[in-house]
Design goal:
This protein has a 5-stranded mixed sheet, with helices on both faces. It is mainly alpha-helical. Among the domains are: 399-491; 499-627, 2-Layer Sandwich (Heat Shock Protein 90). The chain has helices at residues 2-13, 19-33, 39-53, 60-75, 78-95, 98-115, 118-135, 138-154, 158-175, 178-203, 210-238, 241-257, 261-278, 281-297, 301-317, 321-338, 341-358, 361-465, 472-492, 495-500, 502-516, 534-555, 587-590, 595-605, and strands at 520-525, 559-567, 570-577, 609-614, 620-627. The protein starts with a helix and ends with a strand. It contains 24 helices and 5 strands.
């Protein structure tokens, strides 16, 4: 610490000091101080910033703020980093230092990216890219494009991610930059692997072309492997151990997907050593996750658990939420294979909570809108400039016409609104009556089967049991028939609903699904019997039953969660799975099955709302909200 203070004293005492050396020296002290604990280091950094603020060189202050913000970002103190970088942006803008302004905005984007706020990250990247494009700084522009590509990959928008990679590749060739070539190669390899997996998952149900799907997947995987090794060669050529480690980690994921588990373990051991040498905590955690995954694939579960728990503990200690999530997912898979369901369930709760917290479809939409705005900004600028002159004349000429049209539009929209409301009310009444009639008919058929045919078969069985001529085959056939009739009766109308109530019936359905399938289901259900009218309870039961059936039939999920909570005057029921999902926007329109449509009608008849959306990173979240009746 005395060395740092002495350095600060020397820097403030020398009357003539070159700008570059001054900035480099101060930034080195900041970089050394930030990771250390204690008030002394904070005091040193504060004094450095104050010294820069009082310097005759006005640009020194924003320079030092950016260095300090970047150092705090790397140490995980995002709040302090944002505070310093916002100050740097404001000062740079006031001084007209466009390059420093762009850099501070870019660093703010990196902070948002590390926090998982992709919308804010893209907004910052777009703003900084506009400035650097005007300044003609292609190297800085390439860095922005690289991170923009990563954001769009994380939001599963591969076309946009590849577009930004193409821009980086063009800059790399223009500048003859091997580092940028390595970055592009890493992204290209990742996209090849992802495209192969997506193609296979999309076509695996088509058994007639199963071999074609496997061959295509193998082609993409081999292409990705070649690209990763090319990127690894670039990293070694540049002497960048951190990039070499990153390439190796990606190769491990690819090799595991290619089912070459021994090779994956060999690479994982290499990354474990390299990550310890570098000392980067993110990479150390990832290397342990990779070791655990390789041992899990090889069936050595005890060793896999050891690495999984070590990676989770490290992520917890360092407050790395994203890495904690990665470690939890890896450890969850191991516990399931070990049949340690209590431990797996605890992890699943935390995994689903994280996914629901960051999963927001509107956020992805906003990102796309910001990107589109950036792509069209030049064209829009020209259109606005050309339109300014004509707009005044056109506005004056059309004022009267617009007023008249406005009145006509209001009248027409009012008519359409009243008509739509009337038709909607008619539809709701008709739907409710139709569903109620169907349930009453089901109840009648179930009662007739149970009390009529069922009782008769039971009597025949008892009579045959006392008759010596009755064969074993006949008695078995009648017994099977009786059981079949009972099953039909239960399916037509759930008698447990009348006997035990709605909440108990829902719990029974969930337990039966978990018992009869490989689906792992967690639940959080309050007693809702008193909140729903008797005639509506069957609708709630059927919607939940249909939701679980859809997961079993179509989702290819391994885990699900059913939640029923009370929010004000409403009940919110949610069914979430981690399966392959589907096109939620067009599902109700295109589906040949009546399942989703019937669910929609049932919820609507209760005055509720049904919503299906993608669950991040995979699966479906089905939510329906209904009003309480008491």
């Amino acid at each position: 610490m005395r060395v740092f203070l002495f350095s600060l004293f020397v820097l403030s005492s020398v009357p003539v000091f070159s700008q570059v050396n001054e900035i480099d020296s101060l930034s080195q002290i900041i970089t050394a101080c930030v990771p250390l604990d204690g008030d002394s280091c904070q005091t040193v950094i504060s004094e450095i910033i104050k010294s820069a603020e009082n310097s005759s060189n006005q640009l020194l202050h924003p320079h030092i703020l950016i260095y300090a913000g970047n150092a705090y970002k790397d140490s995980g103190d995002f709040e302090k980093a944002e505070q310093l970088l916002i100050e740097a942006r404001t000062i740079s803008e006031s001084l007209g230092a466009n390059d420093l302004q762009a850099n501070s905005i870019y660093q703010l984007g990196l902070v948002a990216f590390n926090k998982g706020d992709y919308q804010q990250a893209i907004s910052c990247f777009v703003s900084s890219a506009k400035i650097w494009e005007e300044l003609g700084d292609k190297a800085a522009l390439a860095q922005v494009y690289i991170h923009a590509s990563t954001v769009f990959f994380n939001t599963n928008e591969l076309k946009k991610a590849k577009h930004y990679d193409t821009l980086v590749k063009e800059i790399a060739e223009d500048l003859d930059d091997d580092y940028l070539r390595m970055e592009v190669m890493a992204s290209t390899a990742l996209y090849s692997m992802t495209e192969g997996i997506n193609y296979y998952l999309k076509n695996e149900q088509d058994t007639s072309n199963l071999q074609k799907s496997k061959d295509t997947l193998d082609f993409y995987f081999k292409k990705s492997e070649v690209e990763y090794y090319e990127g690894l060669d670039f990293a070694k050529k540049l002497g960048s151990q951190i990039d070499e480690l990153s390439m190796l980690n990606n190769l491990i994921a690819l090799t595991l997907n290619m089912e070459n588990h021994e090779k994956a373990l060999e690479l994982a051991k290499e990354t474990e050593i390299l990550s310890e040498v570098i000392g980067d905590i993110d990479q150390i955690i990832q290397s342990k996750v990779n070791m655990g995954s390789a041992y899990r694939k090889l069936g050595k579960l005890d060793i896999a658990v050891k690495y999984g728990e070590e990676s989770l503990a490290l992520a917890n200690e360092n407050g790395l939420e994203r890495k904690e999530y990665v470690a939890q997912r890896a450890l969850y898979k191991i516990f399931k294979l070990q049949e340690s369901y209590s431990k797996a369930n605890v992890l699943l709760e935390e995994i689903l909570a994280y996914e629901l917290r960051i999963g927001n479809a509107e956020r992805n939409k906003a990102i796309a809108e910001i990107d589109a705005q950036y792509q069209l900004v030049k064209k829009e600028k020209k259109i606005i400039e050309l339109g300014i002159t004509n707009a005044k004349t056109e506005r004056q000429r059309n004022t009267i016409t617009i007023g008249a049209l406005f009145l006509l539009i209001v009248a027409f929209l009012t008519f359409l609104f009243l008509k739509a409301r009337r038709e909607r009310n008619d539809k709701i009444e008709f739907t409710e009556a139709l569903i109620f009639a169907q349930e009453e008919e089901r109840k009648r058929i179930a009662r007739d089967l149970h009390d009529g045919v069922g009782q008769s078969l039971l009597l025949i069985k008892k009579q045959m049991a006392s008759t010596t001529e009755a064969s074993v085959e006949n008695k078995k056939m009648i017994s099977d028939t009786l059981e079949e009739v009972r099953t039909i009766s239960r399916n037509l109308h759930p008698f447990q609903l009348d006997k035990f109530g709605l909440t108990t019936s829902i719990n029974n359905v969930i337990e039966n699904v978990e018992r009869l399938t490989e689906l792992f289901i967690s639940k959080e259900i309050i007693n809702i019997d008193a909140f729903i009218l008797k005639k509506n309870q069957i609708h709630v039961f059927r919607v939940i039953q249909e939701g679980l059936n859809n997961i079993i039939k179509h989702a290819e999920a391994t885990a699900a969660k059913v939640t029923i909570v009370e929010k004000g005057n409403e009940l919110v029921i949610e069914i979430v799975d981690n399966g392959k999902g589907y096109d939620h926007g067009s599902a109700l329109i295109k589906s040949k099955s009546l399942g989703l449509r019937t669910m929609q009608e049932r919820v609507s008849s209760m005055g509720g709302r049904l919503k299906t959306e993608q669950n991040v990173p995979s699966g479906t979240a089905l939510t329906f909200t209904i009003p309480k009746t008491s």
